[in-house]
Amino acid sequence: MPVPVPRQRAIPAVECGQAPAASPDSGPSKEQAPPGTHQAENAATRRENTRENPTEKREKPTDTSTETSTGTSSGTGTSTGTDRTPAPGVRAESAAPTNLTVLLIEDDPAGSPIVPDLLDQSGKPIRVRTARNLTEAGRLLTDDVHCILLDLALSAPAPARTNTDGGGSGNGGDAEGDDELAVLRHVLELAPRHAVLALTSSSDAERGAEAVAVGAQDYLFRDELDGRLLSRAIRYAVERKRSDSAERRLAEGRLRAQENRRLERGLLPTPLLAGSPLRFAARYRPGRSRALLGGDFYDVVRTPDGTVHAMIGDVCGHGPDEAALGVELRIAWRALTLAGLCGDELLGTLQQVLEHERSDDEIFATLCAVDISPDGRRAGLCLAGHPSPLLSRPGTPARLLPYDNNGPALGLLPGARWPRMQVELGAEWSLMLYTDGLIEGHVGGGRERLGQDGMVELVRRQRAEGLTGEELLRATVNEVRELNGGELADDLAVVLLDRTA
Q1: What DSSP character marks residue 178?
Q2: What is 371-436 written as a DSSP string?
Q3: Which of 117, 139, 216, 477 could form a disulfide with 70 if both were Cys (CB 3.0 to 4.6 A apart)?
Q4: d(CA 390, CA 452)
Q5: Rounded distance, CA 98 to CA 83, Å?
Q6: pLDDT at 367 over 90
Q7: What are the distances in angstroms from CA 386 to CA 133, 316, 331, 410, 495?
Q8: Structure pTM?
Q9: Rg of the Cα trace of the chain?
Q10: What average pLDDT score do residues 101-120 get?
Q11: CA–CA separation, 295 and 363 (whole Å)
């Protein structure tokens, strides 16, 4: 059965200095004493009662730490444990909301807090939680704590003794003998994302400087604290910690970007076209913001018999798993092509690779593969649920290659077949392979999409202006983005092969 937690005793108004106590039968009472004296007397009485009745203290909850707000009180009164008396005229249950929360870790045996009244920049009280040891600090260190005030005089946890003969350990139980900043190091490990202010005596400035070197944001002299100085130091420490964290994230981002660029150079293919008269150009843009790669993939290789094989594909989805699967399919396609597979046999093997490597049975991939004969005048075309390539020739408008025998996407139908179509290219031509990211962008602010017809007209116009190769791809992608009104949502890949007479 759960043990009920005792409710904290409400402090009467007479204890807070809000109203005098009525005493019709006697003279002036303690509550009518001059301001500031009755609170100290009450605190002293409670401490004396605690010493006289030790069992009363044991009957209280073991967690003596509480959360308090310090504002405009005189700071002279204290209560049992770590509670702090509200300011005169302010009700404890209606304290003003706070912006900053501070965790004070100190073990003052008298129970009088070393932290004066604190106000934030807007004049609101700063909430202070007090922990007497590291165990309590671990319980009170929640996400809403902004700064930790650590008294460096706090005793470090004693290490376990190695002997049991009752004569004591030769190393003693004080970890400070080995490392005077052991407590600080423990707190920094416990709260790596929190600002830490070290409190030390004015005669031990060197220790405070060492605390900053270890990782604290700043150090203050315990015996010279005042509310304004400490409030300003807390805000400074919090902002410095935020700045340090931002700089660290920026440096990590730069390193990650460098690694990504190296990885991208390794993952994107290097065309193997040595000995071929064909010219190659490509454009690639992942749809995800700051993504390394998308689900689109492409490759171009020339086999020993002089045939040039080109491929472009698209894995459904835009996450890192889809990007990784696209890289696997590209590498598998290159290996199978160099091994002599082509057409339906190659696509069937790729489907097996996809089925074994995909993370979900719903994932599929579209693909377009062409194999251009050594003389460059003819090509075989296989489509697996993918848009048909665009063929441009001098003197004739750009047009889409036939897609009547388009097979299903890879991974949809077990045992599917992908027929290979023979296409006449001619002596001089330009063949553009693309993914649907190029044609699914919007036109203007409406819902109308560019589509294949819009793309064909766009390429026709640019070729009429004399654009070819890299310039043609760059202009095409830029105009598609402008028509979309900004960055495209889907991944985009475009490959262009040119043959001149």
Answers
A1: T
A2: EE-TTSSEEEEEEES-PPPEEEETTEEEEEPP-TT-BPPBTTSTT---PPEEEE--SSEEEEEE-G
A3: 117
A4: 9
A5: 17
A6: yes
A7: 66, 12, 19, 10, 14
A8: 0.55
A9: 38
A10: 69
A11: 11
